[in-house]
User: Fold this.
Amino acid sequence: MTHPSDRASSQATCPMHAPEGHPAIPREKTGILLANLGTPDNTDYWSMRRYLNEFLSDRRVIDYSPWKWQPLLQLVILTKRPFTSGKAYKSIWNEEKNESPLMTITRDQTDAMRSKLTAEYGDDVMVDFCMRYGNPSTKSKVREMTEAGCTRILFVPLYPHYAGATSGTANDQFFRALMEETRQPAARTIEPYFEHPAYIDALARSIEAVYAGAANPEILVVSYHGMPKRYLMQGDPYHCQCQKTTRLLKERLGWDDSQITTTFQSVFGPEEWLKPYTVEEVARLAREDGKRRIAVIAPAFSADCIETLEEINDEIRESFEEAGGEEFTYIPCLNDSPDHIDALADVIRQNLNGWL
Assistant:
């Protein structure tokens, strides 16, 4: 299959009435650039250290003063954590393709989106993906799109909910990449789609499909990635958007409050994060509420990754079972399911309005 960028180079022509020696210019098109968090290139110490250093040095992620944070990061955290993180990644690594599941799934999502959008718009669009941390970098993909003739780029962070540490930093990196382009394309970023009807419906359908074959879970734990509570108090809308997704999901499923609850996972550092913490709440549900069968879903992740495949299916599952829980059902992320691709395509079409 010929990639759109390959076709673009063969379609480059000189403008009419151009002087001799004028460089060929590719046919104009619109780029749709999907963006996810990122992944280490491998599970060895140095690959993990490079990735963690880039991630944990991002001031959107860790906003402590660099003169305090960097010595701790470089001299303590990055001497130990690459080993433990590497072990965790190795437990879920896609050995066949020698890459993380996040990379595999994001590529599959992009391929599905490319097929859908090129069927509608033909060569007027170029669809690709990048990562905020690691490879393929945002900078490299913006450069590929501009060289292929993209005079407009729609940037699509694959996060339904806005947070400074996810969508915000992805957008930052996109804008930094644009700063290095001689001819900057027109640019748009999508709004969060946490309440988009097609997204809510896709989540609900995935739950209904699993519940149809599961051992009748007594409660659904809707686990979102956490953040310091301080960020909420500073005005980050993430917490409120997560709560609304859960409410809309509950209404779409026709459930009551006793059947669904919101929690937050992946706590890091000493300060208070958004509560309740998933790892503690699943244990409380078993120990205090007597729940023996639960299901867990993670709607803030567009693709299964280390936080879902390893953290939820290992640490959080273990916490529930050690507290007396018996049936733990993890509901996978929407990944490249047709419902998810349809929902994302709907969001993209809305944001392309006036361009195509």
Summary: The chain has a mean pLDDT of 93.
